Give the backbone structure.
Amino acid sequence: MPNKRSGGGLSPTQQAAKFLGVSVLAGAVLAGIALPAVGALGLAAKGSVESFDELPANLKTPPLSQRTTILDAKGGTIATVYSRDRTVVELDDISPYMQKAIVAIEDARFYKHGAIDMKGVLRALNRNAQTGGVSEGASTLTQQYVKNVFVEEAGDDPTKVAEATQQTLGRKIRELKFAIQVEQELGKKKILENYLNITFFGQQAYGVEAASRRYFSKSAKNLKLQEAALLAGIVQSPSRYDPVNDEAEATKRRNTVLQRMAEVGNISQAEADAAKELPLGLKVSKPKNGCITAVKGAGFFCDYVRAVFLQDPVFGKTKEDRAKIWNQGGLRIRTTLDPQSQESVQQSVKDHVYQSDDVATAATIVEPGTGKILAMGQSRPYGFGKNETQINLSVDAAMGGGAGYQPGSTFKPIVAAAALEGGMPANKVYRSPYEMDYPSPVSQCNGGTWNEKGVPVANENESEVGPYDMKEATALSVNTYYIEMISEIGICPVTEMAAKMGVERADGAKMDQGPSIALGTQEMSPLTMANGYATFAARGMYCTPIAIESITQRVGDQSKSLEVPKSTCSRAMSEKTADTINTLLQGVVEDGTGRQAGLSGRDSAGKTGTTDERYAAWFVGYTPNMAGAVWVGDPAHKRKMQDITIGGVWHAKVFGGQVPGPIWNAMMSGALEGREAPEFNRVYIPPSDKGDRDKDRDRDGDDDDNGNGDDNGNGNGNGNAGFIGGLIDGGTTTGTDGGTTAPEPTFSIPEDFFRGQTNSGNGNGGRD
């Protein structure tokens, strides 16, 4: 209880505190309303008044942070993201019970006083002096609104938030002056509306609409008396009166609000008593924030959209500028994601690779000629649990992905495009022996040469002995053919062609300047490969990938359109070169290693790829109107895909045509269902004169693994293991995949073979 002097009255300490409090606060208040009564209030008040007069006259109200909604290309919601979960509503869309409840408990004289309630100030000071502490506040709703504006302006910066809420005289004076301005400019109804939209109600809910949906799963417009009283009571201390975690304390607080509403005449005592007997009636909706809540497996695409926004200068000159807009929210982002394609990708991924498998898969579809990303999915879902990840396996490291994966023989068509663009005939023949040393020297972009002696390279099977022409070598993915090709044209035309097609390393490093790049040794992402192949489908036009179609931003009660990044298209190669590649790659799905990926009823083309040690397997392919890439492997680059079960199916060895190929087939079939089926512009490739060759080869029509059996892997074969035909492992193995796919490379190349290459996972790339 308060300490009193023996003769009665307040103690000296209490009297001093009361006098100083009244002097300081009254001095500031009176100065603010231009009354000349502060001269004798003391030095403390004088200093306060001078500070008050120096404050800016206008309160800069930041736009309230709100939810951002990310939509697919058809307008369906993908996910809702926010810094603060808030939906701004007008006063007419807030229950009258809610309006009366918040006024009754927070500022019963709201409609009778100005910015500052002098009766309330004196009452609070007297009460606090009697108790020797601070048991009652004097802030009006208007002052509380101003304080919330300061907090909103501070954003998520803890230092600024502390400054906005610290109990200092300076902050209180600023609050008072701005409250006067707000009262003059907005009026009572608008202040109440703003207050109910800005204040925090706990459980990540900012504003009454978000709070109503969080606790009762309904709009604020439909709140009942007892529900409104509960929400109004939370405001004073959201943690203490949290009804989810402390129902008893929340009920007591709600009943206090109901009683106060009766005392001020908002409701009758009978209504208050009846409402007090009711249960809280919570119907809690869990917060649904962030890309983890995305539908149709689009969490990683959602994250990619966020990365684009935060990195693209079109949304702001600096990273801080862009982050401020994103955190402010209120955005409605229409993306390029095609719901049909996305569903098809996720279904195919789910059917072929299980979340619990030792390896994962990632798949991406883009639209040739526009760069629009139509789908993006993976087998390990977005999350924080076992076999979940936040790493987007489809994109480059800078956009939230990993370091990428060697694409293997899917890189070979880029080498062919460079050669054709340089004038090489499409029926070019190379000796293509089963085994050879890398030719040297080979010219590089910097004017130097790659010059390594005695580095071997071999084909998959000993039966693969040339000469071969380009069509046959591409269909069978003959390594020595492509090594001879890059050795003739040089490394620079290949890396330049890759750059024109947007094919770059996932880690942002420069492309290696060794001839082994022809075998796909540079780590890349599925999005990069899909969009690169889209250049072939678009007859040589490369378009930068885009994920965002349009954005509207709501600021207050106004909406405006924001500028968004546009795809930039440029010619990477002639139409003739692209048409020739399309013709060559049709042969891969018709007669070569990619037969399990080929689509029925429409033109398709593509290329398989598998890396050394079987850490990664690929199929990248396209139709004239869609291009897609599928990667399968261990993101950690530890699990070799040998003696492995994937999607419930056991594999002795994984091939690009065997696992990624069927995934690609299923996802593209679903994505293209009901859409037009245009044809490629095929070119005539004259027969080549290969001369005589020693045909120690299997020409019986079986696949190039010499395996005899069915597509399910049953039967006997004498496919040669090891890097491209058993260079290391001796060249003998038992075929397990029937006769539909080719064995894969498994050897490690000599040390120092890759000049300047420091990251792990570099090998011969290989083929499928």
Q: What stands out?
A: Confidence is low (pLDDT under 50) at residues 1-55, 694-765. The longest helix spans residues 12-32.
